[in-house]
User: Fold Taste receptor type 2 from Oreocharis arfaki.
Amino acid sequence: SPQQSNVTSYGAMTVAIITLEAFAGLWINAFLVCVLCIAWVKKKSLNSNEKILLLLGCSRICYLCFSWVYSFLSIIYPNYLHVNPILQLIISFQTFFNYSNLWVSACLCVFYCIKIANFKNSFFIYLKVKIDRIVPWLLLGSGISALSISIVAYDIADKPHCNNRNSTGQGNFWKASIKMDKHFFPSFFLAGFGYAASFTAVIFSAVFLLFSLWRHKRKMQTNSMKNLSVDAHIRAMKSILSFFIIYSINFVCLVLTMVYVTKKGSHMTLLILVFQYTFPGVHSLILIFSNPKLEKTLLKILLLERSVKCKVC
Assistant:
């Protein structure tokens, strides 16, 4: 029927877009992880910034893989999601790596804030001195928080409303999703709380850091210091501002996901998926270009690839 053909074409287009974005994000984060692992082998150690970036890259690679598998099965082969325990495991792993991604990203913003910002508060000075010892505990707390929420997600996915063995068609799959919305509202509240908590940490870190950098820039201009130092701080302010904008868009998409989760074939749903799959790759790309070592390595690889293509041609 025309309606079925429209659904099929919409599903194929969605899978194609998601696949392209997922593989682009996987390539970017795989580059980040490989460079950091090579540096780890050479130096036998990693600093706090590199530890956060390495864990962030690994969590994003896993998140993109499980999210792509879940989206592919839910759109093309929805019946396979009802084979026990595929649905529970995919949702649990996706939730774990999603929250790991969010919380480790928030830890990175907090780390930048404490490391770069300058305040005369005694507590802030104490954090600046002890930040290298605090980072492992922040990462451990992020992992425990993500694990606890993933266990709750596994338990919710194991409920009869969510795991309906009698749902054999794509339409019945979406009806089961609507039932899940009605009976498991606490799960959406829990997800919203996790998103809001991590986003709040990002907001405060960005505001404090931007205020500190702005005050430092004004002080340098008053003291007639070199313009090169002023330009460096302006670039840092732009980088942090771009982080804040990306996090804001991602937070809005995460909230809209809970609103449009049952809207089958909706253009808004497709737009949300596009932004969600763009965030892990774009943010990691900004992190690469804001790090001189990573940027230099990436440019070397791109130039080497270009020279090899030119020789072959």
Remarks:
- The radius of gyration is 22 Å.
- The mean pLDDT is 75.
- Residues 149 and 191 are 8 Å apart (CA to CA).
